[in-house]
Design a protein that fits this description.
single chain, 108 residues
Length: 108
Amino acid sequence: MARSDLKEYTWEEISTHNTESSCWMVIHNKVFDVTPHLKTHPGGKKILLISAGKDATEGFERTFHSPRAREMLKEFLIGTLPVSLQSSLMVMQGIGRNNRRTGYPSLQ
């Protein structure tokens, strides 16, 4: 999906997707529907459900995710936050640079 084709979602809308039947999360200001991944996530579905309907950026970056896992996440991308709602965490992480903690490319 091209960046311009991505729908913008509000926090009000995202926060309602916090169950096993609809599990969305925000990572680096991008909205992901990880519902299909609940059954296959190596850390189990419980860890994903903790961040359901919320900003999961910090937890995602704090936990090791391989380059393959980061690439796989793109399959679940459904939208973005409007610029007015975007977190400054994206700026702190460094747009387009490697993640300082892991050395792997950031999701920007």
